TrEMBL record:
Entries under InterPro entries matching the protein: ABM_dom, AI-2_Isomerase_LsrG, Dimeric_a/b-barrel
Name listed for the protein in its UniProt record: ABM domain-containing protein
One Pfam family linked to the record: ABM
Coiled coil start-end: none
Domain ABM: 2-94
Superkingdom per UniProt: Bacteria
């Protein structure tokens, strides 16, 4: 398996507009991408301008397909001005 962790920092006052787009992207990824096994969207009340994603794919090729999908590109374009920073890390399974 191939895991992706993303931390978004959202511009002040933009979370209300960002979150529905994020949730739609996650839902569409799970429904339309056979290589997407998990797409969790998490927040913490102590960090109100951050969103953390945990995504699990079959392999890096499945993640690449996600990044090339029309819905991901539309999400990225729609939220570009809302995102202050985005940190992405990837992890591959060594043992389970």
């Amino acid at each position: 398996m191939f895991a992706i962790c993303v931390t978004f920092r959202i511009a002040t006052g933009q979370m209300e507009d960002f979150m529905p787009l994020m949730l739609d992207n996650a839902d569409t990824s799970k429904k339309r991408e056979p290589g997407c096994h998990r797409f969790d969207v998490l927040t913490d009340a102590d960090r109100p301008d951050e969103v953390f994603l945990y995504e699990l794919y079959t392999d890096s090729a499945a993640f690449d397909a996600h990044c090339d999908s029309a819905h991901f590109k539309a999400f990225s374009a729609a939220t570009a001005d809302m995102v202050v920073s985005k940190d992405v890390t990837s992890w591959s399974t060594v043992a389970s």
